[in-house]
Amino acid sequence: MFSKPLLHEDAQHWLAEMRERRVLVIGDIMIDEWIWGRVSRISPEAPVPVVAVSDHSFTLGGAGNVANNLRALGASVGFAGIVGNDAEGDRVIGMLEKEHVNHDFVLRVDDRPTTRKTRVVAHNQQVVRADWESSAPLRSQDVSDFCKKLAKGISQYDAIVLSDYAKGVFSREIVETALVGKITVADPKPKNIDLFSGVTCVAPNVFEASGATGLDITDDVQLTKAGLSLLERLNCRYVVITLGERGMALFGAEGEHMMIPSVARTVFDVSGAGDTVTAVLTLALAAGAPIISALQLANFSAGAVVEKLGTATATSDEILAFIEEIPGE
Ligand SMILES: Nc1ncnc2c1ncn2[C@@H]1O[C@H](COP(=O)(O)OP(=O)(O)OP(=O)(O)O)[C@@H](O)[C@H]1O
Ligand SMILES: [Mg+2]
């Protein structure tokens, strides 16, 4: 069954309702560092190109990109995660502050670096990537400090996003601290999926759903099997499987089953589209939108961001303009 199209007036209504809602993002945050330049010679030291740097920039990635997407929609956002006691940790906090994201729940630890991915890009081509990271679980003292911080402030929020990039933030204790009767949406990595049992909605992409269930999702029969099996296994209200260019599939505990086809016109960069889906879906549910409207809005928002370069966000006006331009809407 395919969903009916979302009307422009409905989208406008829900986007207005979404502004000022309070969402807490819990998850693995990272710094994306970009070194831009040109290659004009090979190094005399080793057979590698020498990049003459012309620009150097930083963006928030992972769970930080979900927070950015929520801010672009006017939500009031808090972030809970782990950074190292290092210069990059200061940078994460500075960047959250600049985006007006509350960082009171960020815990700084001294046994791991702040996750950072450094890309060297020459002539618009990535030359190499260097990762600073540890995906070891948190020390038990850090887990209990983190949970204490969370428990203190979580009631201020209308909804919670659990954004898992498998860098060690999540444990069952932390997820349980977040399960306080609010809307909770998890974007899990397959190896951690069982940690998210009991959330309102779990939203893996098709590869993650396949990894978590062991099913080879090559057709709708396998897709349905995977969706229903996750629904039962995780005891959640909804499972949303994002399918890249095919859109997304919804499975609900009350028998809801819906396919939402993608809507992008020109695809430039799909990275981060999953973060946009998680952000919009959570915020729309927090605003009281029915699941189908929330997913359609998330689908349009993802369509708008894949038309931009880099991990991107979309504002309400951009989403509305996009809906107006899609034929048939
Ligand atoms: N090639 C595409 N064409 C049209 N829409 C797309 C395309 N890729 C992604 N989308 C939109 O973005 C949504 C999420 O994409 P996808 O399933 O790739 O998530 P993801 O793999 O979690 O992304 P990421 O991890 O890079 O953030 C899709 O449901 C769809 O709406
Ligand atoms: Mg994803």
Q: What order do the helices and strands come in, and which of them pair?
A:
Elements: H1 8-18, E1 22-27, E2 29-42, E3 49-62, H2 63-72, E4 76-80, E5 82-84, H3 87-98, E6 107-109, E7 116-122, E8 125-132, H4 140-153, E9 159-163, H5 172-178, E10 183-187, E11 201-202, H6 206-213, H7 220-234, E12 238-242, E13 248-252, E14 257-260, H8 273-286, H9 291-305, H10 316-325
Parallel strand pairs: 1-4, 1-9, 2-7, 5-6, 9-10, 10-11, 11-12
Antiparallel strand pairs: 2-3, 7-8, 12-13, 13-14
The structure holds adenosine-5'-triphosphate and magnesium ion.
Adenosine-5'-triphosphate binds at residues 205, 242-245, 247-248, 262, 264, 267, 270-275, 277, 299, 302-303, 306.
Q: What Rg, in angstroms, do the CA atoms define?
A: 20 Å
Report the principal-axis shape.
Answer: globular
Low-confidence stretches: none
Please estimate the helix content.
Answer: 25-40%
The average pLDDT is 95
